[in-house]
Structure formats: structure tokens, C-alpha cells
Amino acid sequence: MNPAIDEINLLRQQQQHHLVVRGIGEDQEIDLEIGPGDDDPSFANTPLVGVSQEPNSEDQEDHKQFPLASHHSNDDQSMSKLQQTKRKKKVVKKWREEWADTYKWAFVEHHSDGAARIFCSICKGYGRKHRRNPYGNEGSRNMQMSALEEHNNSLLHKEALRLQLASKDKTVPMVERPIYVKALMSKTAGSIIEAVLRRDPHELEFIQSVQEVVHSLEPVLLKNSQYVHILERLLEPERMIVFRVPWVDDKGETHVNRGFRVQFSQALGPCRGSLRYHPSMNLSVAKFLGFEQTLKNALSPYKLGGAGGGSDFDPKGKSDNEIMRFCQSFMDELYRYLGPDQDLPAEDMGVGPREMGFLFGQYRRLAGNFQGSFTGPKIFWSGSSLRTEATGYGLVFFAHLLLGEMNREIKGLRCAVSGAGKIAMHVLEKLHSYGAVPITISDSKGYLLDEDGFDYVKLTLLRDIKVQQRSLRDYLKSYARAKYFEDTKPWNERCDLAFPCASQNEIDQSDAVSLVTSGCRILIEGSNMPCTPQAVDILRKAKVLIAPAKVASAGGVAVGELELNHEYNSMHWSPEEFESKLQETMKQTYYKSIKAANENGISKENPESLVHGANICAFLNLAQAMTDQGCI
Q: 461: phi > 0 → left, psi -120 to 50 → alpha, else beta; which?
């Protein structure tokens, strides 16, 4: 073989991997040096040859002689130029206007093998996958612009642009919320809190819930040191499931949300717990819901474990088909962890009869049999369920029980209610039937005030407004005397009883001060952990009696379990029988909590006696089961 001919062929092949775009008009164009390409592996270790301009047919012979002359005349100088050219990686800043839109958001990546590749930075940052070399690394100006236009019109690039725009519109500034640590009497309780803080420092809701329980359990831990190790095991969930939920909207665009299910404890029996669809949903909230549900179920007369979960999916503004597709995708992953003897979900914020129906339908399809129904309204064939009313009615029954212990009546008392879900609606309904005056109801944008109270006719209108996903402000069109207050909460209205039924931590320090000054004497928790620790301290100092959700919402747990019992399920209860059964359940839970508090030195007159008593009673039930079953 002639070495001169071999070198000429080598030069020609290297020119195919060298992009030079020279001046067009007065401005300078892209001068991008590209290293060895991927198309031919033989160039992996071949140095790059610098060429001042692209060859044409007229000077083809000159190019044939150039490397020979250079090689024979000054070999050392040629090798030096080759090494300098190989290291040359630059993009000239001055280019024509149409190229500016291309390369001002282009991304040039240099690989370890010396190759440089151009990517679209938007597709790289927001696309689920991006095309290699969307603009091409070689070719004429027209070829480059054609490749650019093709990429910009591609579905992948348009999807990446949409995701980039959505991320800018929905970006919420992160505000670090400090963790409020209560002062504890014993070092043992303090060490338990410290261990949770070290393990999960960013799970604020879960830490807050743990602090409340540990604070209540201090006298129990001092009596028996074995309970310390049991509590440490209890605070770690048995199983945490985090999974991807992809779904397609009505426009054909793909979205991805995150799903959670925390099966906190099955020491007492199969898990029961809620599902929540809300943008604020995360692992901390799922653990907090599962922990609270575990203690709540431990207070019930039935042997049940606790769980919680949901997704950061927001059902507001979504069509029925979109919600159905999301629920089916959600159940595609979760169904393998569910079952009557393992875990059955219930309703929560953002999950109603429609969502439960979609979830159960997909579960039945995947499981291949009809293994009962999920807890919640039995929408399948039997009409409405008792459980929907049970939680809301139970809150009012519990308030009536507390007032009876004080020799007072609920009739004529002004009641402030937050939330506009099924629990809040049934609280309004039962308050009106007892002769109380429910004056407020709220949503995420404000609250509605009706000084005359909400009767059955007004409740029907409110339900229609919520079903049609309209604003509570539309209530004013029918009742002009009512008022709607935006971006505020109902706790500054004069009231005797408060029923927070919206979400956790809805009552902060300033809201607690407003409740005290407005004359509130009893707070019945309809939602889990509605008060911040600072708010609890203010209410405690003001001698406001707090009825925790663990006790006050026990009716929903009991009736929900009865619905799954085939013997009771076949019975047709009259409203009187249902309410009698519910009231008896509330009384049993109340007296068990008061008894547990008294046995540990907490008097009935203490405003937190119900909180401490409920936590102690629930923990002792769990501790006994965990002791019997060994270290598992």
C-alpha cells in the first residue's frame, strides 16, 4: 500500500467529521470543532485535522498535495498544529440572527472520548427522553436549519416546552417551617423524639403527630421501661409503598404523579385507612395519616390495623374520564397490596364515591374476584351507606355527650364549622336537627357566614353548589343576608363550639387566639390534627376542651367495619337503630379514654384529658398485641 494514498483517504474521511460554517453576509457563523464521530469506530484514536475551509471541486488537487507537502517538509510543525486543533472546542459568539435562537439554549456535551454532541437543553431538562444531535453536527447551513425546524416541530420538544412552562407557572417558593419541639419531662421521651428527628428530619407532619403522642405517653413510659422499645418499633411503619402513577388526559398528553400507601401497623388486624388526592400529599402526610389511623382503630371495639396514603394528584378541574384513568393507573400498582384480610382503603380529601367506584372497579378487574368493597359509600348497587353519615353525626353526638357531662345543652349554641366535604355537611345537618345554630362553612378560598344558621333547605343548596364544583359565593345569590369572606378562616366569628373539618394544621396560633376571644369553649376535631402545637398550647392555657379526632370520629371506624361484616351487611337498619348504635360506640370510646387518663394521674378536669387518655388507651392496646406477637 502507498502511504501517501492512505493519508489522503484518511484526510478525506476526517473532513466528514469536521463542521465549518463560514461567513454568510457580514456576520460570522458557527465555527464548531467536532471530535471523532460515532459513525465509524476506526476514528476513536485518530487526531483531528484542522482545515480552513471546505474543499470544492476546483481545488481538489491542491488538497491532495497539501498533506504530502506538509508531511515531507515540516513534520514536527504539522503534528503541533494537529494537537492544537484537537483541543479546540469553541462556538463563536457572533452569528446571524436566525442562529441565535438556536444556540442560545443549545447544550454542547464533550465526552471522554473527545466527541462533542449538541443537544436541546429544554429537552434534556424537561423531556422524558431527548434526541441525540437534534440539529446535526455536520452539513450545510440549510441542512442545519432544516434539522432545527424538524426538532422544534417534534412532539418531544413541544412536550418539553409545555413541562418547562408548567414548572415555571406552578413553582411555589419553598418556605422552611421550623419544627416546634415540646418540652418533655423525661429524658426517655426526649430520646425517642430525637431519634425520629434524626431519621426523618423533613417529615414535619409525622414528627408533629409523634410529639403529641409521646407527650401523652410520658407517665406510661416512666412506669414500664419495656414500653420504650415497643414505642420505638411502633413509630417505624411496617411497610411504605411509593410508586409512579402515569395517566393520559383528554388531550392525549401524558402526566405523572406519585402514589403513596403506608401500612403502619397490622398488630391488631388488617389495615384500614384513608386515601387522599391533594397536591400537598407526600410521604410525611401519608405516614402521619397512617399513624393517626392506627391509634384511632386501636380505640375501636374491632381488631383493626392502620394505614394511610394517596397521591399528589389534584382532581379539581379534571373530567370524569381523566379521574377514571388516573384511578385505574393508581390501582394498577396498589392492588397487589390490598385485600379484605390485608388492607382496604377509605375516603379522604379528594376521594369520594366517584373515585372509590373507579378504584374498586379496577381492583376487582385485576384481582379477578369480588372480595367485598372498599370502605366508604356503597355506590355499586345498594344505594347510600351509613358510614358517610357516621363520622359527621358522631362528631355532633360526641359534642352532645361532652355538654351533657357539663350539664349543658347543645340547643341554641352557635357553632363554627370549617370544610365543605361530606363530614362538614353531615355535621351541619345533625347540628340543625339538635337545635344548634351552625353559622359557617369554608373552602380553600374563604368561608361563608350565615347568621341565621343553615337549615335543611340551605344545606340542599350547599350540596348542589359543591357537586357542581361552584364557589360558595354563589350561595349569596339565593341568600343575600349571608356574607362570604375571601382568604380567611371562620375562627374569628363568635361561637360556642368549633368543628374543624378541613385538613391538618388549619388552626394556627393566631386562629387559636381568635377562637378564645370569640368565646369558644369546646373544640371537636373532625379532621386529623387540625391544630398546630402552638395553637394547642394557647387553647390549653385558655381552658378550651379539645376532643381529639381519635375519639370524636370513632363512629366512622366502627360503622365502616360493620359494613364489611356480612352478617350486619345483610341487615337493614332504621335511622333510629343506626343512631343508637353510633351513640353507644361514642360513649364507650369516651369512657375508655377518660378511664385511661385517670389511671395515669390525669384528672377529668384537665382540658387535655381526652387527648392524653385516647393516646394512652390506644397505645396500651397496641403494646399488648405487639408483646404477645414477639419482636416482629
A: alpha
C-alpha cell at 134: 437534534
Q: Which residues, in sequence order, are CB contacts of 608 under 8 Å at separation 6+? A: 540, 546, 602
CA–CA dist 64, 72 (Å, integer): 14
**Across the strands, what pairs with 305?**
271
What's the CA gap between 621 and 97, in Å, rounded? Answer: 75
Written in H, E and C, the secondary structure of 374-441 is: CCCCCCCCCCCCCHHHHHHHHHHHHHHHHHHHCCCCCCCCEEEEECCCHHHHHHHHHHHHCCCEECEE
Nearest to 387 by CA among 417, 418, 363, 356: 356
Nearest to 270 by CA among 305, 313, 321: 305
Task: Calculate the CA dihedral of residues 518, 521, 522, 526 and round it to 10 degrees.
Answer: 10
Work out the average pLDDT over 551-577.
69
How far, in Å, CA of 499 to CA of 491, rounded? 10
Cα-Cα-Cα-Cα dihedral sign, residues 380, 382, 388, 391: negative
Q: How far apart are CA 539 and CA 498, in angstroms?
A: 12
Rounded CA-CA distance 489/509 in Å is 13
The single-letter code of the amino acid at 293 is: Q
In order of 245, 286, 333, the CA distances from 330 in angstroms are 6, 15, 6
Q: For residue 37, what are the contacts with CB-CB under 8 A and spacing of at least 6?
A: 16, 17, 43, 115, 137
What are the residues whose beta carbons fall under 8 Å from the beta carbon of 428, sequence distance 6 or more? 417, 438, 441, 454, 459, 462
Which of left, alpha, beta for 201 (phi over 0: left; psi -120 to 50: alpha)? Answer: alpha
pLDDT in tens, 460-505: 999 999 988 899 999 999 999 999 999 999 999 999 999 999 999 9
Q: Write the pLDDT tens digit of every residue in 401-420.
A: 999 999 999 999 999 999 99
**CB of 131 within 8 A of CB of 123?**
yes
Which amino acid makes up residue 575? P
Q: Quote the cell numbers at residue 338.
A: 390490598
> What residues does 277 pair with on adjacent strands?
311
The pTM for the full model equals: 0.71
CA distances from 38 to 20, 35, 90, 115 (A): 18, 10, 20, 8
Rg from Cα positions in the chain? 34
- Cell 483541543 sits on residue: 87
Q: What are 112's three cell numbers?
A: 471522554
> CA 84, CA 47: separation in Å to the nearest integer?
10
The grid cell for 173 is: 417558593
